[in-house]
Amino acid sequence: MNILAILILVSLCFYLYFKMKTHRSKSSVQQKRSSVKAKVSLGLFVGFYGLNQLFLKLSTIGIIVGLIFCIVGTVSSILAIRQYKLFLSLDMEKEKDFTI
Q1: Which of 4, 38, 78, 93 is 20 to 30 Å from 14 by CA-CA measure?
Q2: What's the rounded Cα separation, in Å, for the pair 59 and 99?
Q3: Based on the structure, what is the number of domains in the chain?
């Protein structure tokens, strides 16, 4: 249980860090990268919170809410990781164009 609480706090800290980095950066490419990293961290936060709800509240409503949070957090993280991979491939293509 303590591990889930630590993971929740760590993912929340990473979300806040990347959100602040998004607002502070001047380049739009860096803003997009930081924004996607913040989305991954937020998805992990929601997913870990859902897991925590599953273990803490063993009522029917607690289990349903925990499952919904787990599903939403997992889907959000997966979509954000795909978006991050897309940005990485686009950046690599741009670097190839400049070097040739």
Answers
A1: 93
A2: 60
A3: 1
Angstrom distances, CA of residue 69 to CA of 22, 52, 54: 25, 10, 10
Q: Look up the pTM and report it.
A: 0.84
| CA–CA separation, 1 and 56 (whole Å) | 9
Average pLDDT over residues 62-66: 89
pLDDT tens, residue by residue, 84-98? 988 888 777 777 766
Neighbouring CB atoms inside 10 A of 79's CB total 14
pLDDT of 20 reads 94
Amino acid type, 2: N
Q: Quick one: angle between helices 60-99 and 28-56, nearest 10?
A: 160
- Structural domain span for residue 74: 2-99
Average pLDDT estimate for 37-63 = 90
Residue showing tokens 């889907």? 75
